[in-house]
Fold this protein.
Amino acid sequence: MNVPNIPIYGVILAGGWGTRFWPLSRSQYPKQVLRLLGSESMLQTTVERLLPRIPEERLAVVTNVDQAELIHQELHRKGWDEVRIWIEPEGKNTAAAVGLAAVYLGESAEDAVMGVFPADHFIRDQASLLQALDLGAHWAQAGYLVTFGIPPTRPETGYGYIKQGAPLDDQGKVYRTDRFIEKPPMDRATEFVAAGGYYWNSGIFVFRRDVLLAAMSRYLPDLYRELARLQTKENRPPLSEVYKRCPSISLDHGILEKAENVAVVPVEMGWNDVGTWEALHELFPRDERANVFLGRVLDQNSQDCIVVAQNRLVATIGLERIIVVDTPDATLVCHRDQAQEVKDLVTELHRQQLVESVQHTTVGRPWGRYTVMDEGPGFKVKLVVVDSGKKLSLQVHHRRAEHWVVVSGTARVTIGQEVSMVASNQSVYIPQKTPHRLENLTVEPLQLIEVATGDYLEEDDIQRLDDDYWHPDKG
């Protein structure tokens, strides 16, 4: 079949944070920005693999308000400033995210073919993906809701399955879907692999915008009714108000499991959803004892283990089927058979309101980064690094004062109406409620120690008076 090159608008879902990849992933540093498999983040890799088929101006990322600035940084670093960012005020699962994208897309492309892609999957064979996209777009144009099925290589209890129905073509490349099966127990997963005709649900979809919205109006009328309010030209309600009334349900459960016009395209493309630490055992080389060691690891006589060391040496002796992930502020140790349960552990971290579920000690910013070195009642100590030619916003803190000690480089410091150059081994003091700014005009990184004192020391005590950087609208 000769498939025409139908224009596709790509929607990348990047609103989750990959709880099962804790402690590397945090709610404010999600899995899609991790550099697990190379020098680029998973989000950047996702965009890269789509660009040969979907140009930058037809790509959009759906994320949440807490991650939007980080997502923008990831795109900006690659020069992808034409990729749109659509911000959800709160997470309501994939049906709402895709529906919101369909509404926004309708403002420029009424009958567009949409491709929906998770931001955090690994795909080894880009050519097979793009070929499947062409085929999927053809059947989407014909009115089908198309999903991609991955031929299983083993029984897997961590994935959902799709059972193929009758073929839609005479080449065996596209089938109706018979049914969707939630994550099965091992005995049923084994039966699926032996029987054939079952596929892992990849979470990649292609459909026409109007076909999706028609299905949403039929199967998820409450969600459709709320999102339709955003299509009005006058008296459009705030998105936050609309989202409060939206049900939380996945696209699979809400629509695809119920609709009759669903097709599956089987495609072998070296796919892995990188859902848990266990995935690294497939994706990385293993030593003679089937261990995967990343970072500074010294081992004696361990077998079938996964050990990830970030900053310091991790030494292991005689372990079997154990996962160890060490970060500067948290360490995970668990059995490989229980890797899925890391998600439950993170739920408990949230319940106890522990900062280790939210962010790392080192936090990236458009101008550089900072690392929290120590903190306690009334004080916080940071190492601040400002990249060459960058500057922070002109800002005010209402509840804290700051002391800056330059370690290396020269800082241009604004405090109130005074501007001065502060060299290595010199310091300045910024009182509460005083406008101030830090700049690095040199070609070398600027490093300084910041000691903040006050009754509230969190990052939201910032009033920006002038700023060069993109920030999401949190209103």
